[in-house]
Each structure stands twice: as structure tokens, then as C-alpha cells.
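task queued by scheduler; priority normal; single chain, no ligands, no partner chains; default sampling; output format set to C-alpha cells
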Amino acid sequence: MTASRALQLRLIWGLSLASVVIYINLYMVQGMLPLIATSFHVSPAHATLLLSVTSFSMAFALLFYATLSDKFGRRKPLLWSLALLVVADIMLIWVQDFSALVAVRLFQGILLAAVPAIAMAYFKDLLDTSVLLKAGAIYIGANSLGGIAGRLIGGLMTKYLSWVEAMGLVSVLTLAGVVGVLLLLPRLDRVRIRRRQHKSGFGLADLKGFGLHLGDATLVKLYLLGALAFMVMVNQFSYIQLHLMQAPFHWGKFQVTLIFLCYLSGTYASFRSAKWVTRLGRQPLFILSAVMMCVGSLVTLGDTSSAIVIGFLLSSFGFFTFHSVCNAWVAQRAQQHRAKATALYLCSYYLGAALGGPYLLPFWQHWGWSGVVGGSLTLLSGVIFIVVMLQRTHRPRTPLLDAAG
């Protein structure tokens, strides 16, 4: 039995707010690299290590939280991780050297993993089937808003605040968000109810869900799709900043962070994706969104500011449509150990993001932005190939939504 409509709405908005808090904390450093380099006496290239260590620790911590929440409940691990995130933000105020900063960001990556690892399974536990895809779309939209806000807030803080002032502001924002999540999230927790009914210890048997999902060919393809798509998306945004700071553009260090406003087209796509799945079906929408990412990449080769902005609007639109459908399909397909299924998807997703930078680096070094586009199109060709394989071989266990048919 699902929760009441009021509790369902509280769950959707509570997890969406938690998502915004998480992604502000994850991506704020991307807009703060000049300030970090100056404050801690390292090069901007060295400062980018902060992004890598956080992504890697976040990717593997997802698996831990999935196991924990499938066994002991969704709500408490999520809230405890958010509370400790406030503590970690306060610690950043007092760090004295870059090594300590890396250590705290590594710790933050572990804490940041709780919400994305648990959210879709939490939705699946308490929401009506007819609401699930819409909730996932709202949640993914909140992801993109948090990503935009984090980068822009980071850029603004670099321009106007010192490191200590900036981290003080981030701590306050995080605390306000955590209080909001605490007030919104319903206390009802289906996993906790099952835990009381079937008490048992925590052991290796609790890890079997990972093997179960990795043995599902459809889920493995979805994991690979998420990794490849995000390898392209997040790293294109990194390299386009370098391109826009060069001739003939000469965008400033804060100005280049405005390119992340192109994520807004993805926010819109996330909110609309539920209706598009109902009308078009999953595989056709996968193909269309992947093709849109290809077209967006090609448009940027016009190499004017307008062409680059239009191209990234198209790519963002395509990516977030793709990600929304993929994320919801994983949650729906998993009949048990749901948090583990979504955690494996997101682990591959963030590892893809971490590996995409090194993959595209030689393309950038040898051929500049056109090389990055070429490397991206190679990956997107792989995405389209895997989607075609899904279309030919997959027969879903259950429909994604009853309304989708």
C-alpha cells in the first residue's frame, strides 16, 4: 500500500530539496577554482583535483548507502548524511592547506552519495506507480537546478568573497536546506517496517543484490548508457570553459560559468520527460535524446558564442531527457534490492564523469574543441548502438508505467 497523497508530495519535494543541497555542495568548487588556487597557493589545474576526489569517493559510497538503506531504512541514513554535511562545510572554513582541503572534500563525497543512492528507491517504496515517473522527473530537474546553482554560487563567491566568507555562506545555505528536508520528509519508511518484521544481522548476504543486478543484461546496458552519456555531458562543459577563455572569445573566469545556465533546458526536459515517455515509449525517446546530444555537439562547431550556447542548450535538453528515463527504468525494473540497483547505475554514472576528463584530454590537447566534439561523438555512437540492442532484445518484465502501456 502506498502513502497518502499528502505524504507522497512531501516525499517528492523533500527529496528534491535534498538533491539541490547535494549538487550545490558537489559542484560549487567548479566555479571557485581561481579562489581556491589563490587561497591555497596551488595552480588552477592542481585545484581541479578537488572535483576528481569528490566524484570518486561519491561513486563508491553509493554502493555502501544502497546496502545500508535496503537493510535499515531510507530516512535515517539520508538525514544523518545531510547533518554531517553541514559539519563538513564548517570544517572547510578552518582548513589551512590544500591537503586538508582534499581530505575534507573526500569525506564530503562519501556524505553526498546518500541522497542519490536512496532517492529513487525511496520513491519506489512509497509512491503510486502512476506517480513514480513524474516524481523521478521532478527529482532529476532538481538535480540540474542544484548543479546550476552550485556552479554559479561558486563563481559569485569567487568574485566577491574570501574563502572563509564563502564557506560560511555555504554552511548556512546547507543548514537551511537540511532543516527544510527534515521538516518535509515523512516519517513513514517501508524498509523500517519490513526490518521490524524480519530481524536479522548484517552480513555478506546483504551484498547479493549487487550480483543479482549485474547479472541482469538490461540493467547492465542501462548502467553503461548512463556512464557514457554523462562522460560526454559533464566533461564537455569543463572543456568548453577552457575554449571560451581563449581567443577569440576571451570570456572572464566568472563569465564562463554562465554557460551552465544551458542546464535550464535540461531542467525543463526533466519535468516533461514523463509525458514524452507515455507518448513515444522508452527506446524511441532514448534514440531521440542521444541524437539531440549529437546535433548539439555538432552545432558548437560553428564556433561563435551563439552557436556554442544553442549547441549546449540542445545537448542539455537531450541528456537530461535521456537520464530521466534511464534512472526511472532502473528503479522500475529492480524488483528487489532497489537501492542497490539505482546505486550501481549512479556509481557507473559518476565513474563515467570521472573517466571522461582523461578520455577527452588528448582530443583537447591535439585538436582543441573540435577534437572534444569528435571524441564525444564516438561515445554517443556507442550510446545509440546500445539503445538499438535494447530495442531488439529487451522484453520488459513490467511496464515502466501503467499509463505508458
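post-processing summary
- The mean pLDDT is 86.
- The two ends are 22 Å apart (CA to CA).
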